[in-house]
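TL;DR need structure tokens for one chain.
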Amino acid sequence: MENVLIGKDAILNLRMGITFPDDQAPEVQPKPVENGQSLIDQVIAATGPKAHPRLAQIMPSLVRHLHEFAREVNLTVPEWMAAVDMLNECGQISNDRRNETQLLCDILGLESLVDEITSNLLASSNAGTPSAVLGPFYRHNAPLLPNGSSIVKNMTPKTPWYSQATADSAYITGRVLSTDGKPIPGAIVDTWLAAPNGLYEQQDDSQTDMNLRGRFKTDQDGHFAFYALRPTSYPIPFDGPAGRFLTLLDRDPNRPGHIHFIVSAPQHRALTTQIFDDRDKYLTEDAVFAVKDELVVKFLPRKGDPKARWYLEYDFVLGREN
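>> reply
TL;DR here they are.
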């Protein structure tokens, strides 16, 4: 084994005796304290009577699971400190353009799980469009554009990915509907995707600010339309702790090509979701476990439009607020 960089400053030496063969791992039993309470009981009992109700409800379970996990795997101080350093670095490199802690949750499947739980709790029926994870590269206040506009900005033949973008140019349209099938006028369709080089604009200094991002308001018939690109698969970033963590786990880092959406309208629950191109080879190997069959779409050839070689029509269905 060799030294492994986990966080920015913490190196985990796997020769230190901090891992054990399954048949040699020492069993760690909780030690009772003088008043007869275990450490878990003490931590749980420390919560005061004026604690936030939801925290008072969930913290006992969190404490039990954390302590039992540490005992089960014989967690050592060097391992714990490496994990702390990794979380610290996630926070240090996160900002309003990138959320590394959220990315770490994504690759552990936590955001997909929480998204599923939340959707099930809020859903009044199964008729709405399935949700999917927000991801770490959402930006607020994308430009509000007229329907039929392009979210591809300042692309010229000198753009390194010009040829691929031209080949993947796409016209995307659809409607926003309520679960009763009625169109929703005035809904906001907020969309963003990575460029053909696999980078979102905030990762790539060569891209124009807010490139491949835009918001569109549906018309009286609930329609929206814009020009974009067919999405490209890409690996999650390796310049931070989440990417290094994937490497340590020997996991495939790729995300299938996808387009992000947040669709919102008054008296309806906002929908955060993604659509996935059916041509992508990583559909069954998504690094963040977000693909759902209902969100896989098929782009069709588009003729007679010099601005797009592909066409997609996709409707979003929003559930009403309870």
